[in-house]
Amino acid sequence: MNRITVYERANFEGLSREFTCDVPDLHELDFGNCIASLKVVGQPWIAYTEPKYEGEPHAFEEGEYPSVGRPNSFSALRLVHHDLGDPQITLYERPNFQGACKVVTEETNLAYGYFNDRVASHVVQRGVWLLYQHPGRGGWHCLAWPGERLADYKPELNFQARLSHLRPLRPGQPQVSAQLLWEQKRVEAEREVLVDEIVGVNETAAEQALAAGSRREYSTTLWQSFHFSNASSLKAGLSFTLAVEASNVFTVQKGRSESSTRRERVEVQLPAKIPPRTALSIRVLRKEVTLSVPVLLTLTQNEAVRTELGEYRSVSGTNISAHFSMKPLPAAGTEPGDAAGTEKVPGGC
To answer: Which ranges does the record mark as transmembrane (predicted)?
Structure first.
């Protein structure tokens, strides 16, 4: 949800208020001219120095602001509802959209090119733009809204031939919910890996305890990753969680943390006794399974909902079991007999 939380003191201290819609006059809510810090979630907000969205505008994009440039001066707040995903503005050298023109789609310092201090009119195709008097976002500034056709900077802005820098407002990060489509999972590989082998021989006529003990601990590994589609619109740094199972919630952060490895210890039960005149052989195996699962991502941004697909992949080596066989020892003066059979002792996982 889009919201702004404002505080009466710097560093988010003192009285606070939270808003989710436009506020034409903060004085009516007993919070006028007292904002010193704020936090924004979602779309940008514009703070004005006069009620009813008049006076000097100050834009605040998603993030935390422990201090603001004009503390104790804001009288109105406006949420930017517009689509900010594909901004474009056309600048013209002369009034009434005449002369040479320049199409801009990203933040631009005009001082580095041939259009510095030459703009006299503009048309905003998409997005909300901040126009600055000086390079590096300096000096006096104003807002330009989608669909705006400003025919002459001089009478309307007193700004003719003084534009040196401009940038579009950035949209807030979308809220992401992820659903694993287990019914479409693919098992790509399965194999058993020998992790331990134990042999015990009882040459006596009485049952004996296994010298290795009846329990052993082994390590398990779960490697997992998330892959975004090549057409993904999500930006680096966005994070969300995948609830793979109750004990495994995988946090994905695009461009920074898209894979993880979990290691745990499990206890495996072994046969406790060796029968008389018997050779006991134990093989401890770890089953490794490689699988992939499609993931449906639902993105909510500025009240618009869209979806895209990703993929969850894992190599799981968390299933460990012990398999044993017992072979009678040959009587004195005879040849060894055949194996008596194979049994499986379930592991701790």
So the answer is: none
Q: How confident is the model over 321-348, as pLDDT tens digits?
A: 889 899 999 876 555 444 433 333 344 4
Question: Do 94 and 55 meet the contact criterion of CB atoms below 8 Å apart?
Answer: no
Question: What's the residue count for the chain?
Answer: 349
d(CA 224, CA 314): 4
Please spell the DSSP secondary structure of 167-225, one letter per residue.
EEPPPPPPEEEEEE-GGG-EEEEEEEEEEEEEEEEE-SSS-EE-TT-SEEEEEEEEEEE
The pLDDT tens digits of the residues spanning 26-66 come to: 999 999 999 999 999 999 999 999 999 999 999 999 999 99
Contact present, 345 and 321 (Cβ < 8 Å): yes
Q: Answer for the pair 189, 290: CB distance below 8 angstroms, yes or no.
A: yes
Among 171, 178, 179, which Cα is nearest to 240's? 178
Cα distance from N-terminal residue to C-terminal residue, the chain: 41
Beta bridge partners of 39: 5, 64
**Both structure tokens of 336:** 């060894």
Q: Measure the CA angle with vertex 130, ends 126 and 136; round to 5°.
A: 130
What is the per-residue pLDDT across 241-257, written as a single tens digit (0 to 9) for each?
A: 999 988 889 999 888 77
Query: Which domains does the chain possess?
Result: 3-79 (2.60.20.10), 88-168 (2.60.20.10), 175-345 (2.170.15.10)
Query: In Å, what is the CA distance from 40 to each residue of 61, 153, 199, 290, 307?
Result: 7, 31, 65, 41, 24
Q: What are phi and psi of 147, to 5 degrees?
A: 80, -5
Q: pTM for this structure?
A: 0.69
